[in-house]
Amino acid sequence: MEQLKASPAGHAALAPRLLADVGGTNARFAWQAAAGAPIEDPITLPCADHVSIEAAIRIYLARIDRPRPQSCAIAIANPVHGDRVQMTNHHWSFSISALRQALGFDRLELLNDFTALALALPGLGADQLHQVGGGQALPGAAIGLLGPGTGLGVSGLVPDGRGGWVPLQGEGGHVSLAPVTPREQLVVEFLTQRYGHASAERAVSGMGLVDIHRALCLADGVLPPEGWSAAQVSAAALSGQQPRCVEALAMLCAWLGSVAGNLALTLGAKGGVYIGGGIVPRLGEWFDHSPFRARFEAKGRFQSYLAEIPVWVIHASQSPALAGAAKALDQN
Length: 332
Fold this sequence. Notes:
This protein is α/β, with parallel strands linked by helices. The chain has two domains: 122 residues, Nucleotidyltransferase, domain 5 (2-Layer Sandwich); 191 residues, Hexokinase, domain 1. The chain has 13 helices and 13 strands. The strands form three sheets. It has a six-stranded mixed sheet, with helices on both faces. A five-stranded mixed sheet has the order 3-2-1-4-7, sandwiched between helices. Strand 1 and strand 2 form a beta hairpin. Helix 4 crosses helix 13. The relative contact order is 0.17. It comes from Malikia spinosa. It is an enzyme of class 2 (transferase). It is found in: Cytoplasm. Belongs to the bacterial glucokinase family.
């Protein structure tokens, strides 16, 4: 299976398409005239404003003055197994076949959002990437991908032996969270008591940042602010005005480094590790000086192995997962 080299054939390749990147917070839509054509008319809709994914799609199609798409690919922040989709971090639930029929698509493809992002990685330009440590990527070697947003997405690319790539489909964001410091241990205990399982996603995500901050406040006997969002904790951390917010964001970055290092070791990701999602790109230079890189490399005897692996933060004005969704439609 040549994931990035197969080209579509027939009438479907020339027909317009709807592309979507659906997360737990926002649904990003775009239109494409045909396979290989530019991705146009991007619009982002808050998921909470729409009762269903079908309703959000209909709103998008009503807003654009384009021919009705005949095919659709949706990258979604969720495992995709069988016909039924129940989002992990949002209430949307739907049948793939029923959605296709309701919207009149000839073809509807569903794939995990980070699988779609993985498909898009080879097409990213240097201007869309910011390197954080490491050396040069080894051509043709496995590539790791992860990123915190509403949840924690994890994927990657492995070479298929014929010059193409195979994207990984998994749920690596739900691996168990490993504390390194006493402060991290008390946060893990807080998360375990609250959720039953302290997964990486419970800390390395938007809600995870809020929970880390709350756990640190409680541990220090400080009343945590009510109703604070991840954006508020992050802003307070970046301004340096709230020491526990700074500590919480640094802890999130440290744990992201640990998980990213684990992924690099597991895949042998000498082709580099990419970081997507909605949180890290907003941190700017602060992330460069965070504990991320030190924790990425802190693997004992394999520190030197990881020190050579480059890490890139994805900075793209348009969701690269939309291009990955288009790639999914390009497969025969």
